[in-house]
Amino acid sequence: MSKLNVCVLFGGVSSEHDVSLITAKGIIDNLDREKYNVYPVGITKDGRWLMYSGDSEGIPSNSWLKEGRKAIISPDRIDGGLITDDGLIKIDVVYLALHGKNGEDGTIQGLLEIAGIKYTGAGVLSSALCMDKAMTKVFLGGFGIPQAEMLLFINKAPDDMVEQVEGKFTYPVFVKPSNGGSSCGAYKVRSREQLISSVNSAFEYDTKVMVEEYINAYEVECGILGNEETNAGSLSKIVIESETYDYETKYTPGMAFNEIPAKIPQDKTQEVVALAKKIYTCLDASGYGRVDFFMEKATGKILFNELNSLPGFTPFSAYPGMWEDKGVSFSQLLDKIITLALDK
Ligand SMILES: Nc1ncnc2c1ncn2[C@@H]1O[C@H](COP(=O)(O)OP(=O)(O)OP(=O)(O)O)[C@@H](O)[C@H]1O
Ligand SMILES: [Mg+2]
Questions:
Q1: Domain 129-146+216-343 belongs to what topology?
Q2: What local confidence, expressed as pLDDT, does residue 32 receive?
Q3: Where are the domains of the chain?
Q4: Which pLDDT belongs to residue 316?
């Protein structure tokens, strides 16, 4: 079999640019060179596309910014690849090592659909839907998926915002922007004063703000691999040293870790896996994704939180760890994700 040409796309204009560089290095280091010719292409923070053929260490250390040469995905299907100053490079599959805005939200997926080039992970609609938490929740409500009760405010807090919230919930409540990421603009709220300031602050991140019942819970995550047929990796439980899984907790070493496999009762594991597969299918996800749940401490009740369509993917992230625990190495995981992209 001839080798496949794989373009690894990384960086990007999102706030998760730096995480993407680490993701990309891990992927580039672990793609089997017997099977793939690898073409790393980085998108700078201001949106320039640069192909970088140096050492993978130069990605997180940012030497790709100096050494990279212009290379762009052509939307022309006959081109079917990258246009560079030295000519055209045909691409069989784009491996998306991006995270967040313009990587995870259906926009780059749209460009690749127009270009007629296969790519890893979910398609346009599914990516866009999963990026927007409120949309995801409203959509899944139609399938009877259990989730936290929510009030949704659009553009600004209405005059009777406090009455609506206090009529539906008792404090504490949880406030978050619909398009957030990394817990920015998300708050546990204990009083009317905090509610008003938190909602206003959340509106600085997005035009849609959600107020949810506060769920006192363990957070359990399920990695899914597949298109129509799906498989689940071992579950992960987030063990934290602080009260909420906020930005600081997420990115301060030692404050949070993933317990894999999650130490939860057998029947709960089965419930989470079955629900994760159902949600993945309802949201039309493909390739791979991570479905996050709350397991309520008092009752054991399982509630859906969100689906990450391009989950954290450094060799140390939870998602690859969930498969490692099942005997699938990082390299083998990349093979499977590429095969799923080609099969779509
Ligand atoms: N209703 C809720 N009750 C209690 N805690 C919540 C609730 N919603 C969110 N949280 C807490 O806030 C964290 C971030 O929320 P969420 O996962 O929805 O947002 P995020 O900003 O997309 O985070 P990321 O994409 O980085 O996982 C959750 O992991 C959880 O700890
Ligand atoms: Mg989350």
A1: D-amino Acid Aminotransferase; Chain A, domain 1 (3.30.470)
A2: 97
A3: 4-119, 129-146+216-343, 150-213
A4: 82
Task: Decide: helix, strand or coil at residue 130.
Answer: helix
What one-character DSSP code corresponds to residue 147? Answer: B
Question: Which ligand 1 atom lies nearest to the CA of residue 183?
Answer: 21
What tens digit of pLDDT does each residue of 203-260 get? 999 999 999 999 999 999 999 999 999 999 999 999 987 666 666 666 666 678 899 9
CATH 3.40.50.20 fits 4-119, yes or no: yes
Relative to the CA of 292, which ligand 1 atom is closest?
17
> Using one digit for the tens of pLDDT, what is the confidence trace for 265-274?
999 999 999 9
User: Pocket of ligand 1, candidates 130, 215, 245: which has the most ligand atoms within 8 Å of its Cβ, to mutate?
Assistant: 245
Q: Cβ < 6 Å from ligand 1: which residues?
A: 133, 148, 174, 176, 180-183, 186, 212, 214-215, 219, 244-245, 305-306
Q: Rounded to two decimals, what is the model's pTM?
A: 0.94
> Distance, CA 91 to ligand 1 centroid (Å)?
37
Cα of 32 from ligand 2 centre, angstroms: 31
CA dihedral 58, 60, 61, 67 (to 10 degrees): 40
* DSSP structure string for 45-101: TT--EEE--S-GGGTTTTTHHHH-EEEEE-S-TTT-EEEETTEEEE-SEEEE---ST
Class of domain 150-213: alpha beta
Q: Whose CA is nearest to atom 22 of ligand 1?
A: 181
For residue 133, which ligand has an atom nearest its CA? 1
Q: Helix crossing, 192-202 with 161-168: angle to 10°?
A: 120
Name the pairing type of β-strands 81-84 and 87-90.
antiparallel
